[in-house]
Amino acid sequence: MKHRKITTGIAAALVAAAGICAEAGQVMALPSVLSGRVVSVAAPGTEVKEGQVLVTVEALAGAVPAVRAPADGVVQTVSAHPGESVKQGDTVVAIEVR
User: Fold this and answer.
1) End-to-end Cα, the chain, rounded Å
2) Count of helix runs (H) and strand runs (E) in the chain
3) Does the N-terminal or the C-terminal CB of the chain have fewer CB atoms within 10 Å?
C-alpha cells in the first residue's frame, strides 16, 4: 500500500511539473519527446482526446508516438510534416484545450 501512495505521488508531481493542468481555451504548444523522421501528424482542426497520439516518428525502435494530447482539445497548428526530421524538444503541434 505504501508503494502505491509513493507511485501516485510521483505521477502527480510529474503531471504538475509538465504543466499539463490546462484550462479550457488555453493553447498548448507541444514538443516532441523523441528525435526522428515524422511519419504521421494530426491535421489542424482535428478534435483529440487526452492521451491520443498526435505525432508519430520513425526512431530506432520503429514508428513510435512522439507527442500525445495532454488534454481533450482541437489541433490548432502543426509545424512538422511527414518526411521531415524533428529533434527532441522541438515544438511540433499546438492544441486548444476544451
Assistant:
1) 35
2) 1, 8
3) N
